[in-house]
Amino acid sequence: MPEGLTPGSPGANPVLRRISTYSTSRDPHVLLEIEAEQEAAGCLEAAVRGVLRNMQLDVQPHLRLLEQVGWLFWLRTAADSQHNPRHDRDLRLMLTLFAPLRDAEPESVPGTVRRVIPPAPQPGAPQVRGWGDFAGFLLQEAGPHDRTAQLAAAAVLQLGMVMAEIDAERARATSNLVHVLTLLHEHHAVPDTMTAAVSLARRLFSESSDGTPEQAQYLARLCDALRVAYETRHTPDALAELIGLTRKALESLPGNHPDRPDHITNLAGLLHLRYQETSDTESLREAVALSRSLIAALPPGHPAVSRELNNLAFHLETLSELDGGLTDTAALNEIIDLGRTALAPTRGPEPPLELRIALTANLSRWLRLRAQLTPSEDKAAGDTDEALRLARQAYDSSAGHPTGVVLEALATALSDLYARSGDREALDEAVTILRKAVNTADTPFRQAMRRFMLGARLNNRYLDLGDPADAREAAQMLREVAGSSAASVRHRLEGAWNAGKLALALDAPATAAEDLTLAVRLLPELIAQQWQDADRARRLSAFAPLPTVSAACLISTGRPERALELLEQGRGLIHGESAAIAVDLERLRAQSPDLATALENLPGEWQAAPDADRRHQLAEKRQRLISEIRRVPGFEEFLQPPRLEEILAACKAGPVVVPIAGPDGDRSHALIVTENGVRCLPLPRLTKDTVRALGTSILTGSELALDTDRSPSERVLAEHELRSGLALLWDAVVGPVLNAVRDLPRSGADDPAGPPRLWWCPTGFLAYFPLHMAEHPEEGSAFDLVTSSYTPTVHALGRSRPWRASAGNRPLVVAVPHAPGVPDLPGADEEAAVLVGMLPGTRLLRGQAATRKRLMAELQNHDIIHIASHAGYDADRQYEGHLVLHDGRLHVSDIATARAGQGGLAFLSACGTARSRLDVPDESLNLLSAFQLAGYSHLVGSLWPVTDQASVRLAEAFYQYLTTHQSTGAAHALHHAVSQLRARHPDRPSLWASHVHIGP
């Protein structure tokens, strides 16, 4: 051992101290015990990170460290291979560390090593390329899980960056260093490595010449670094840049370039990832198209065929789920055939091991899915058995490092075996495998994903067997995922949501409240990268019950105010941001005109965006813009959830009632909100069974009562059914509420001659029921006791602009008596004639003039708009609502983007314009809310279809009252009109119970 390695002071590093101990004892165990390698890795990591933090390297101290650690591993190789099973790896590691010293200070290297490593052509000349070769061989032998080897390679490559005398060698060392730093971050979570890897890769790419092979290599390196940065949540906004760079790399390659298949595969995979993260369906469909085109272009036997068949099957699986779920065995048969062909190609080489493992795990999953759809028990059992066999095969082939896909395949296949056979050992084995996987996870990201899988499996075992210990462990696993910054927003949200439900099952409402509060806070973040309403709704549908369950939980812990805040934070998310922007835009313009203009122009830029890439760039631009606006004085809380004081301030005009149907009657309440505070009223009769009964009585009853194909007796019975539903609604919700608000003082918004005002803000499926028309034969009717209005959220009332009818109003009447594809609507002409004669200055769009473009343009010029037409819902657009105009359908999402310059009242005389989508009932995705978002503060519509003649009579009475009682407003006008309709048809609630007013 050279004299220079003798520790000179007690402060010497642990590697030197260990070498000194060995030199005295000559005990090889001193060098071979696990602590020796840990100490060496610690010294290397400190050196590597020290360079990364300031991108400066002091050569001599760095050489000394390589010498010290190199001697440690040299001495380890001298031990008997029986005692050192890693002899060959240690030998490569030592050679890598000594390579720079062989050039710089040959005398510091053992003589045997000097003979193995060739000398430099000129003494003292660094052979940086050779150092990189040694590092590459080491990494190839050691694999991605050898932290010490990666740190050693990084330390040598850092030295190469500094000592290289040729630019090409310096760039090569830098490129290789990017790769090693990416591995260190991905597999070992070494701090500072990812930031440095991306920074170095950017520098390499920016300094390279356009069109050169080197630039293509550096672009690939940058893409690799960005991919890992994104997947490990280090740089969440890297995906859009990564997709753009991958497209650029693909465009730079000629059609016959051998690297094109890899670039196409990468692009399709990234587009699929973007769909998973943001629900952008266009990206998923492009991934499918890219994969199909690549398979068609590849010659038979090409080594990429197996990989791409697997990728296409994976893309098709996800697309099938998007288009309604994997419910068709034919679709699964195609996917399984693709998987089998990929796994056992008839021509060409066998897939490499890593791909073969992924293919085997995927095929296992697809077979399981087909088994669930197969009616034949024998065939289902065959698929299930093969799925388990394949999953075990994939797991056993993973050499102790199974991927998440493999773990999920085996754990789920074992669970299926338990479900089919009752084999408890299979279920326990699934949990054991996942527990081991959690303990061996080498990065925070993998640990979070494996905890999520373990939590889900324990949750399932708890549901099957009822052991509270499983529920507690599952909740803890999922809670840790929810709190992990390494996990995706979706997994964090699912973790918090499921942990909260488990805590409720364990009768721990306080703990559940914390979990569920976090879940609600994550909902806006979940949809932040999506602008299309359909994509946002699809994302939120999986968490539809979350806001009301969370509020019910908080109420049960004695925190009704916090429950209200959480409801306001978790509801109306799809349109809430746009509504808030519309309110604050002019105030922002006075403070910062440039920011206001940029914010105002974003929707138009998004509409004009040519592709998904540009839309996602705009989404990131929006986030940066919002951050900048929050730095403007007075806008610190811009687009933040409303606080309690803001919510209460919206109730100046009168009380707002927020009924909540909890998981059971014990957790059902109504929050009665006034400007003075929040009062909580238990609703013990409001149970899940009650809500189901209300749906049958009210929704089915109204549908049958208005069905002209039914016999008169059937329609009469349906009216009675509807009336019984209104009585049940009184008993369960409205009666207790009205009794509780009886003593509240009347507000200035009330009509002194009529009943007091009351606003309803229903949650969940309660939004489908006419709370304002609940009645009980012996106790009275809500319609007679209060003048009701609705609001999608309490805070929305405070954002509504005041408006009253006046002589200066400019009404617009739109009548569509005939339209392609729908029955004629003769009442539309009669309705229009009545209103044109009643409202001076009315502009009429009728028949062929009632087009989508004309209507959208006219919204800017009228403060009253009345539309008499058909309305409906599109099954191919997740049941988005639309108005039927002469030239086609005008959808909710189109109307919501309009801006009504003078918007005041929108009266939609069409079917079900107040009915929201069933999958996201708390989002108020209906035609009325679309006009509200466009700028109309008062809205009139219906919860179910209405008849022609009833619509004409109602509209006539409404405007007659509105024009002669201008001081009272739209709510009182509707109340008056409905009262006349009810008096004319007292036994037909289907005609008058559905009409609602939304607004102040």
UniProtKB/TrEMBL annotation:
Outline the extent of the CHAT domain: 727-999
Domain of life the protein comes from: Bacteria
* Gene3D superfamilies for this protein: Tetratricopeptide repeat domain (1.25.40.10)
Pfam families for the chain: CHAT
The protein here is known as CHAT domain protein
